[in-house]
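Deliverable D4.2, example record:
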Amino acid sequence: MARQKSATAPTGHRGPVSRCVYDGTQLDASGFCLSGNGYPDTRPCPFACPLCRGDLTWSGACFRCHGTETPQVVTSWTFPGARFERDHDDGTPIGDGHHWVKIAEPNRRVPLSGAQTSACAAIVGRAVRGEMTTVEAHRAIDGIFEEAFQR
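Output generated by the structure prediction step:
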């Protein structure tokens, strides 16, 4: 049996057309789905850190340089990329819940002290061990960030 030809891009472009696995909409060159108003959650984050060119996460974090030229100084960390989410903090989906939707601009400063950073890490550890739910962990970390932003 002969292989079926994949769809090709419009005239002047090379390669197959990428389609959203959820709704079949043609994705743009970066993988963005117009009908889902975001990037399908089956794809890795396509963005690179503007400082070190390392991969960014959907949260906008760069684990290579932490968005600073002095990554060893925790208080200088930023989120160099935009923040994308699929769900609100309460667990309800944003849109259809299957697309990463942009909710915050890049270069968000991380205003946490060393003690606050340690407290957040402890909360994540508790959630990973099943000692608290993800929603409880989000609320606890949100409280730490609210306190930090009020300084």
